[in-house]
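Obj: model holo form, ligand = phosphoenolpyruvate.
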Amino acid sequence: MAKKVTKKKAAKKNKKYVYFFGEGKADGRADMKNLLGGKGANIAEMTNLGIPVPPGFTITTEVCTEYYKNNRRYPAGLNEQVNKALARVEKIMGKEFGDPNDPLLFSVRSGARSSMPGMMETVLNCGLTTKTIPGLIKKTGNPRFVYDAYRRLMMMYSDVVMEKAAGIEPKSDHDAVRHKLEHEMERVKKKKGYKNDIDLTTEDLKALCAKFKNIIKKTLGTEFPDDHMKQLWGGIGAVFQSWMGKRAVSYRKIEGIPEHWGTAVNVQTMVFGNTGDNSATGVAFTRNPATGENLFFGEWLPNAQGEDVVAGIRTPNPVNEAGKTADTRHLPSLETKMPTLYKQLHAIERKLERHYTDMQDIEFTIEDGRLWMLQTRVGKRNGQAAIRMAVEMAKEKLISKQIALLRVKPEQLDELLHPSVDPAHEKKAKQLAKGLPAGPGGALGQVVFTADDAEAWAKKGNKVILVRNETSPEDVHGMHAAQAILTAKGGMTSHAALVARGWGKCCIVGCSALEIDLKKKLINVNGTVLKEGDWITLNGTAGRVYEGKLNLLPADPEHNKWYKELMKWADQVRKLGVRTNADTPSDSATARTFGAEGIGLCRTEHMFFESARIKAVREMILSDTIDGRRNAIAKLLPYQKKDFIGIFKAMAGLPVTIRLLDPPLHEFLPHSEKELRDLAKEMNVKFKKLKARNDALHEFNPMLGHRGCRLGITYPEVYEMQARAIMEAACELKKNKVKVIPEIMIPLVGHVKELEDMREIVVKAAEEAQKKYGVKVPYTVGTMIELPRAAVTADEIATQADFFSFGTNDLTQTTFGLSRDDAGSFLPYYVEKGILEDDPFITIDKSGTGQLVKMAVDKGRKTKKNLKMGICGEHGGDPASVEFCYNIGLDYVSCSPFRVPIARLAAAHATIKKKR
Ligand code: PEP
Ligand code: MG
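Output (holo structure tokens):
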């Protein structure tokens, strides 16, 4: 036993925490993302591919996990391993860290398993101290560059390490150390009449660095560290700390990234894109991430450091000629400015895309004419681009059709199905401003200026557009809540653009005509003043901004050839049917264009509310005798019949499941005394009588009360009329040679006897209708399974049913004992706290509600082998639930029209995943 413990300890001590990369050899690989983070794994892979990568090392995500487990202490042995890796880098570079004559400098960056753009910390230029500065000046002969690097180090380090990681909370944004340093720099620029940072001279920067030291000491109470090792460990610690920072935690929640994954830390030799005109830096994509076009696409800046491109402070240049737009035509491309290096970069990006068989998002730096690759990762893309890339890559034989299908997340189709600005209306409207089209589609909303306001307004049900100079990761919650994002600064790779693209949200960036006054909450756009709450419309596809509300047009996926191709492939692969929930002919027609293969749920109660009908319904409710009820209900028959004719026509040749009346009757009566008095007058009944009836219908738990088939049991004439209307409509159409497949569905059955009784009524009415018309229309009678008792006794219920349709809205409600109408006040908290992984009304609760569904499927099929089974709760349009439905053997899912394509793709995914 004792031996075992020692062994374990020894293993822990020898555990590899640090993975080296450099000079064509790396300890890691691309498939080690869990341990090295996405960035670290890909740097290792690039190194192994012989691509020029500055050498360095990755500290594993396990260190992060252990760090938090052990009260923020590093595991034993880490120090030693870091020192060893440092020595290897020094050997390759022929320089030493901290050497006063020729110092090596490092960047320290985060890198989680899945990319979290800008959510965690980075410190560049670690190793610049009063000892090393003179050596670096001597070596580079460029004192301006050295002091510029030093002021950047101080800005980042004091903010990230000395303030944020140290847990210091500034009283306001203005008190934050970074703000103070930026303010000082702006002051100097203004005083000297400079426009850009680049105008600052060596002397200015030198003086600024001295000033910075004082400000840091004064603000934070500690000296800026003048020791290279202290800086390095400070940076490493800050990255680990930032894993639990506010932004990272909030981003993880939105993206569903688990906390226990942790982040890795990448320590890498600094290469500089800002040593002069022979240096540059850029960010690029191997294909256009906004459109999916197979074109190398990117942005670069000469004499700049990486953060300058993404921070949106300087407008970047296009990387090549082909990627130029009307707005960037006048800017110099890397292709023309540095043709040899561009060629080398182009060859590398091709190699990377072929190697990873997916679109890559790359970062590069050119230092004194030498190209270095800093990063490659699978690039985020919007839905439109994802579809085009997947289809084109499959056609290029880079990937299989199955992989192409898996490359598009079902939810991404949503973007294609989103509205766009009506071009006719847009033509007439006066454009307010123009920016870069970072996220497609159209959106309208009220202007808000802060992320917190966006969230608060959206919570109240307002549609908002978040307007900022530029966004930062602190804004993610507001960006998420907003309909769209509009920024005055930034390029296509700015934070706003990246995040919005990932979500497929309408977004315009770099809209420089906006002069935003945050304090007064005003925007001045060439003389037009907009204030908080004013409406604007964005055309995110073209980058155009309009005042007021423009018409939005529904999406038009039918004219997108890549989408159509992908959906064709999905239909070839999937085994699960996809129907729609629709109660009108127009919704049915829309769903059919989206590929619905029938109606899985037609809720008839919606047809009862129109003005002429509601009167008859109320008459029926108020009458005390069967005959009185029959007379009233007979008035509804022609309306219902007309409704069904419209729906059957729209779904000609496809099955249509019609559910008989479900909600409690009180829903059809008004509630206030005044409305009741008006109604009494209108119906010529005494108010007292009406009130008494209304009171009698009152229920404490109406959702568990007199509804569903319980209505049919007590008022059989209602179901009788509905069955007759359905079958008369079907017979009439049959006579006109329209193929109709009616499926009549009884709701809220809990006992087989209920279904037996209701079936008898329906069959009788159906037979009579057929006799009346002298035609035969095949029809079926089935039931919803939406109560636990129905699921548990599904074998008995199946004796009376031709089909089952799972009403998982009610089944979730009754399984959890949760009111679906009231759970909103506490259920989100359950999800936030992690008590429930997902909202069970959105994604089916597999281990609870799902097990009841599975049990009912198995029991039902034991009684009737070929019993048809589907789902018509909201879960039918949720990709994870669709997969579950396929795996337990349902025949189809049914969802709202706009989710039909999503369900089709999710069904294809389910088939592919099950096969693998
Ligand atoms: C259900 O309960 O899942 C269902 C589809 O019916 P409704 O939502 O109308 O109660
Ligand atoms: Mg229901």
